[in-house]
Amino acid sequence: MSQSAYIKLVKGSQDQELTLPYIQSTLLRYREQTAKTGEQLGWDYAEAAFPYTIESSGDERWFYLKGINGHYKHMIMGPGKTTSISGEEVPCIQVVLTDDATHGDKAKANELCRYMAKTLQAELTMFNGRTIYYNPRK
What we know:
Layout: E1 3-8, H1 20-41, H2 45-49, E2 52-56, E3 63-67, E4 74-83, E5 89-97, H3 103-120, E6 123-125, E7 131-133
Antiparallel strand pairs: 1-5, 1-6, 2-3, 3-4, 4-5, 6-7
């Protein structure tokens, strides 16, 4: 059975609208940052930190990350709408791990979700159902 995590743009989040190119650019920014970290360390960290290629799905609703080695298969990402803790409908990024996902995929998905949620100052509902709040709350 597939598992999903949701990065929800709630009140106080940096943005209130999501598009497929915006999500992809956030992932590319992550890849750039990890590559620069690797340069500083003298190690090719970019491939270890982001072991995927971004593949189009053919429609404009979602895309998938395809693993570049045997430890990673793939994960699916796309914008959507979901209900926040307060009960209102909010835009979100849904990250889906399919049945054949590896432990590496789940670990990377958790890492990418935390990065994107922190960048967007969003509310993150993890694969295990727990919620992490990166948005400013009062």
